[in-house]
Design a protein that fits this description.
Blueprint: H1 2-21, H2 23-26, E1 47-50, E2 53-66, E3 73-84, E4 86-96, E5 100-108, H3 127-163, H4 165-180, H5 183-192, H6 200-230, H7 234-241, H8 246-257, H9 259-282, H10 294-298, H11 304-309, H12 315-338
Antiparallel strand pairs: 1-2, 2-3, 4-5
Helix pairs in contact: 1-3, 1-12, 3-4, 3-6, 3-8, 3-9, 3-12, 4-6, 5-6, 6-9, 7-8, 9-12
InterPro entries: MetI-like (IPR000515), MetI-like_sf (IPR035906), OppC_N (IPR025966)
GO cellular component, one term: plasma membrane
Subcellular location: Cell membrane; Membrane
């Protein structure tokens, strides 16, 4: 069962990473494209039958009505407005990865129509396109933060365990200080210190560094413990006797023997970093426009009134939960596969 969940997790993560890499191609609109005639409109259903016949996939346009008492606008399907869906269409130009100019998108409708599979937000922007584009930030920040944490934690941990003495004592006291603070409040405090005048890109880098600088302490202590157990092993003693330098022993002998543990810890740390970035962005102290992440998109769904009337605005949260579960499934499967004492294979 664990392996099946791991496979499911891998499949979802592969799909999510592909979406993140090619979000501009998969999204029918840019993140800032506005449908002025459809503000907070519900998701459109894709139809393949019309008048009892199988036809090209299409969506109906919206018909809006304003409540004279509450002044709220409601949207329903208008059978008179039919927008066929075409694949590999020419639409708004974009630069894939900021390098390759293109205007081809996976699907879309003719000019004058609209397709909003996840509905639209309060400004009339397509939720589906924004969720796909936000995937890049919501995945890249945790992954980069995890890599920085792993490099710091592994390097400092193996050095602490190998050298011992005063250096080991000082490093372990530092890790204890970092681990004594609750992570979320500490992340919030550090993120709040970022100057508000920072550009979106600089703030992206700042949030990534903030998340990374707190997460390395736990891995450092674990790698130190493994190093203490390994440094008196025969192969380490043989390396010393052969005249191997300290960096060679640390990075060619000790760290590779901890690699399976590092992989599992790194994988299982990503869900927490995803939630941390989303939380900071949701609170307004993380990613800022024009960049979008799942957390910034969820800011449109803060009130109960909005959720009850426009539940499709929770779509970023659904993607976030599924991704967190997928990474956890993968991490558990890796732990079982790499654990020599596990009976699960």
């Amino acid at each position: 069962m664990a392996n099946r969940l791991g496979v499911i997790g891998i499949i979802w993560l592969v799909i999510t990473v592909m979406v993140a890499l090619f979000a501009d191609f998969f999204a029918p609109y840019t993140v800032d494209y506005v449908h002025e005639e459809a503000l907070r409109a519900p998701p459109q259903r894709v139809h393949i039958f019309r008048d009892g016949r199988l036809v090209r996939p299409f969506v109906y346009g919206y018909k809006s009505e304003r409540d004279a008492r509450t002044f709220l606008t409601t949207y329903t399907e208008d059978p008179e407005l039919v927008y066929p869906i075409y694949f590999f269409v020419k639409a708004e130009p974009y630069k894939l990865w900021g390098l390759i100019s293109s205007s081809t998108r996976l699907f879309g409708v003719e000019e004058g129509g609209m397709v909003a599979l996840f509905g639209t937000g309060r400004l009339g922007r397509d939720v589906f396109s924004r969720v796909l584009t936000a995937t890049r930030i919501s995945l890249s920040v945790p992954i980069i933060g995890m890599l920085i944490s792993v490099i710091l934690g592994s390097t400092i941990g193996v050095a602490s365990g190998y050298w011992g003495g005063v250096a080991d004592i000082l490093i372990q006291r530092l890790t204890e200080v970092l681990m004594s603070f609750p992570r979320i409040p500490l992340w919030m405090a550090l993120a709040a210190t970022l100057p508000p005048e920072l550009s979106s890109l600089h703030r992206y880098l700042g949030v990534t560094i903030v998340l990374a600088l707190i997460g390395w302490a736990g891995l450092c202590r674990q790698i130190r413990g493994k190093t203490l157990a390994l440094k008196e092993s025969d192969f380490i003693m043989a390396g010393r006797a052969a005249g191997s330098s300290t960096p060679t022993i640390l990075f060619r002998h000790l760290i590779p023997n901890c690699f399976s543990h590092i992989v599992v810890v790194a994988t299982l740390s990503i869900p927490g970093l995803i939630l941390a970035e989303s939380s900071l962005s949701f609170l307004g102290i993380g990613i800022t426009p024009p960049l979008v992440s799942w957390g910034t998109l969820l800011k449109d769904a803060q009130s109960v009134q909005v959720l009850t009337k426009h539940p499709w605005l929770l779509a970023p949260g659904v993607f976030m939960v599924l991704t967190v579960l997928a990474v956890n499934f993968l991490g558990d499967a890796l732990r079982d596969a790499l654990d020599p004492y596990s009976e699960i294979r």
